[in-house]
Design a protein that fits this description.
monooxygenase, 3-stranded antiparallel β-sheet, 536 residues, Cyt_P450_sf, alpha+beta, 6-stranded mixed β-sheet, 21 helices, iron, binds protoporphyrin IX containing FE, iron ion binding, Cytochrome p450
Amino acid sequence: MSSSVHRLASLVRWLHHFLADRHQRGARVAAAIAGTIALLSAILGVETARKRPRYQHAVELPGLSRLFGHALMLGNAYDAFHDAIFHIFRAQLDRGHGFTAHLTIPFAQPRYLTVDPRNVEHVLKTKFDNYIKGPGFIDHQHALLGGGIFNTDGNAWRVQRKAASMIFSVRNFRDHMLHVFDRHARTLVDKLDDAATKRTVVDLHEWFHRFTLDGMAEIAFGSPIDSLKADAPLQFAVAFDRAQAITNKRMIMGVMQRRITEWLNGDGERLRKYVQTTDEFAYRLIAKRRADSDSGTANDLLARFLAMKKPGSKQGYSDQELRDMIINFIIAGRDTTAQALSWTIFELTQHPHVVAAMRAEIARVLPTLASDENGIDYDALTRDLVYARAVFSEALRLHPSVPEELKFAVQSDVLPDGTTVRAGEGVQWSPYTMGRLTELWGHDALEFKPERWIREDVQQPGPYKYPVFNAGPRTCLGQQMAYLEGVACLVKLVAKFDFDVVDPSEVVYGMALTLPMRDGLRVRVRRHVPLAQTVV
Ligand code: HEM
């Protein structure tokens, strides 16, 4: 009896979550409850029974309802989704049940959740051709990402990857990108200096998104935006974040369930509106570059795509294809690095001894940084700032910018741990959970310890135990760029400022395709006074 009551309460909470819309409750909610229950009852009982696999090695995730699969469990846990997955695995491993679990989502193909590095290597590298993004996933993301690099498979992906990889050369990093990052980091420092004088509270998370957008716009699209200098966030950025949040909700739905839910709760309409705003921004950039007579000699990504013919065709890329490229690169280059910076600063505020160790390294490697007008040396950044780089890696271990990943099998296959995956089924792995498992990182897995990255007696983790930047043929193209930009910015800020988080308990992640902070990172800024200067 109590479990029925609990299930009913769960159902109501789940429906409330997906239907919550201050403006359109009432008729829609009533229709939704009746319609959803009738529809799901009719279909899901049969569907889940039909799709439930014969397990080998993978165990059933808790919270399976014969009628609703894991939808209620996921809906209830949605706001803390990554931690729910972590706790489920923690409990499963404590019971000796292994590294892979099975998940059933109404109307969607069943999927496996795994945190086994051998399985991750298998999907990302060994059987790369057998695991694709797949039509369902691509359909979910299409409104926002279109046919851009994150949302394609096969030849369309290959062509974009080849074209994009041209900008990620050591020469471009050293001679161009570093100077761009340095310039924007100075603008950020000036703003923080001003905030320190006025003692205002600033949302560092939002400022980091502007910092990385400005860098990305200049490097990839050849168009300075200077959003850091503006008084308020760009309208584009607000719409972009909201569009991502809606797109992410789709990841725990089947396509049909998504259509019904979004029709009922209005998310479909809202997404169209947000995408329209992001499109206007992208199309303005494209029009400006098409009109610019110098763009033929420019070296940025947009210039390269503008100059290219489509493979096997005499035609160039259409505005819509260029728009897809721009939007995908904004997610790639703005959100990931801005969020990595935000979580790193947050961890630093909680671990003053790490800040002290960073400052000691900065004093040794870049003694004039705090007053330096010449910018940061490339070799120092990529080779000598070992501890600062470890700090960035460690923050990403606990707060990976892409917290969950998913691919679908083209043909039936057996994972290295013995789990049978049938054609069309999904394999999802969780960098967020993997970064927190004692089985992978030792007894202190949950502690923030940059030292673990520089211990000589411990082998450095490979990309399958630490799949934060993906691995194999689709490994992140921008990993080095992210370290360059991230570490350059971090050392400048750490050398000059102390940050106090207004309320650490309000720093939680929000649900998006990446790992933003739901309510931002509100900090008070103080100019750092080195000890030597405080001694009278
Ligand atoms: C801390 C920062 C970053 C993290 C954690 C990160 C992580 C990732 C991950 C997990 C993927 C795979 C996504 C997927 O499965 O589709 C990826 C792909 C990619 N990343 Fe990054 N990334 C970061 C920064 C950057 C930057 C600065 C760029 C520069 C534009 C970039 C460019 C790309 C591109 C183009 C891909 C697509 C690769 C492909 O599908 O072939 N990333 N990144």
